Structures are given as structure tokens and as C-alpha cells.
Known about the structure:
Blueprint: H1 3-6, H2 8-15, H3 19-40, H4 46-60, H5 70-89, H6 97-105, H7 109-122, H8 125-135, H9 141-148, H10 152-172
Helix pairs in contact: 2-3, 3-4, 3-5, 4-5, 7-10, 8-10, 9-10
Amino acid sequence: MALAMRHEPLLAAAHGGDPQALDQLLRVCRPDIRRYAQRHCLVSDVDDAVQEAMLILARRLRSLRALPAFTGWLIRVVQRECRRLGRAAFRFDPYDEEKLEQWLAVHSDDSLRLELAQALESLPGHYREVILLRDFEELTIGEIAGRTRLTPTAVKSRLHRARSLAREYLLGGENPRS
């Protein structure tokens, strides 16, 4: 993401308040933001992380003091959004990074995969479907609504409930089917 070097005049114009330059900068940055989010989001909420990162970019670019720091700053914005979304999905206290690290530290990658598979298997079918479409196939809410013939609101509701049940299974040791 060497955006600062490749697009220095565009970045300078957007930083200076040019709305057209900002619009163009957002278009230029989007693929890099998305690629970075795809590699770093815990729950594959890539679309949400990208959208939030772009909003932060649009709102806070003018407050950036050193334009050469743009790339590093933008990467940190995406990292924070990925962590925030991951914590929200598992209902971790947003200020308790230590709790998340402890939970992850006691699980190997293989045990995490196995527990996640078991949590997904434990979900009722209609919840499992939306969570797989969103978090594994990375479909948007609208695409899921079209595929499942549900309203976007119903998809969001099912996705929230599916994640809550999976979280209970993973962190609380409870069986969500009961």
C-alpha cells in the first residue's frame, strides 16, 4: 500500500480539502483497503471494515499532519476496524484486548478451526446458512437477501443471532440448540 508515493499530488489535494480529489483518492484506496482487510479481519466482515475505514479516511484525512505517514496511518485504521469487528462478533469488551489474547493463546490454530466448525454445526440451519454466506463466501447483506429470499433486515437479524449463538458456543461452552 505505497499510496502516498504513487498518488502524492492526489493525496495532497485531498488533504487540502479538494472534494473531487478526496473522491478520487477513496476510489484509488478502496482495492488496497479491501485486500488488507481480507487478510486481517477476524470474522471476515471485510465489507464493513472497508466501509468504516473509508469513512474514517474521508473524515480525518485533513487532520493527518505528515502526508508521508498516510500509508501507515491507513493500515492502522483498517487494523483497528478489523479488531473492533472481531471483538463485536464475539462480544468481547472493546477495551479488553488482554481477554481476547488470553482466549486465543490457549487455543492452537487446529483447535480453533475444530471449535469453530463445531460451533457452526451446532447452529440451526437457517442461522448457519446466513453466517456461512456472509463470513465464508463474503456475500453482502443484499446478496444474501436475494439468495435466501429474505429482507435485508431479516438477514441482519439472523446473522446477529447466528453470531451470538456461535459466540455462546465458543466462549460460554453452551449448546445453542437448546
